[in-house]
Here is the input.
Amino acid sequence: MIPRTLSAKLKKLASKFPVLAVTGPRQSGKTVLARMTFPGYSYVSLENPETRDFALNDPKGFLGKYDKKVIIDEVQRVPGLFSYIQGIVDADPFRGRYVLTGSQQFHLLNKIGQTLPGRCAYTRLLPFSLAELQKRSFKDPFSFPGTGKNAKKSGFSLKNLLFTGMYPPIHDRKIAPGDFFSGYVAQYVERDIREILNVGDLTAFGNFLRLCAGRSGQLLNLSSLASDCGISHTTAGRWLSLLETCGIIFLLRPFYKNFSKRIVKSPKLYFYDTGLVCYLLRIRNTADLAGHPLYGSVFETFAVSELYKSFVHRGEESPLYFWRDKTGNEIDFLFDVKNAVAGEIKAGETVSSVFFKNLLYFNRINSDKARLCLVYGGEESYAREGVNILSWKDLP
Here is the structure.
């Protein structure tokens, strides 16, 4: 099994909190992570009908059987357990007592907020990061490679990685992406839809999902999305929130501190996984992907998702934003921290000075100068004209 970056953070949190919660999209590896990180713990899954029935009808007896050092999988399936867990940890705040996992982020967070504030440490697990697949040591996302050419090969083909995506079963069990994603959408995404929102027209929702995939990496225009799908603006908003809840998409917020009202304030829509994007766009292989008009957007989705994971998998809130003014000048990503990082993303394998235009413009109009970075589709990382040029394979 491939080690996960989040494991180290979970071990630290287990020494401080009686309850740990791990949420994230289905099939992102939460169960494997919990069992690898805490090998001495008992394990029980509430997906099992008999086990779920036991927990529903006799929560005290269930928690009496699984008392200390236990992993409870898909805990949101029996929401009544949370009140009993609260009583147990209040009476005996044994640290690291429960590890709870769940795929429906909204339900899990809602119950934790109601019953376990201050008692539970919350973390999120996304599909593999590139660093995890490469089995290389973790890189601080704020650091950059030094100058000079980096000749080390990544061991992966960029286009193949974009096409397959990062979901663990594809890599651990060598499942063909098409086989995995067809089942994933039918079994997990649509099931969660029924459970959370009781969506009746799954055909319309499937069309909505594909339209979202075609907009990954673009400014969110909910009215246009609703119109193209033939649904109301309100319905489009509810469905988009559902995709966020299920860990399929995220919205990257615009950065507009210290700037005038001429800054765009709509978020950008991104999928967490490019393999799912390719599947929804009906891209059949890497050759189709290479010639696809949305290849640049797929690459940008990959880069932004990797940057996002570099914080989430450390158990941290992401300080990731983008910046765009109303005349079209844009910074693809921005770390809103001291010694900020402003970055551009280009899918090409060669670097041109014209790629630096928006980065240099941003620093000219910004009183707080940012470190500048260009992520591109080539193999070498180096410095040029005051910009750190970062190969896709060196993303943190």
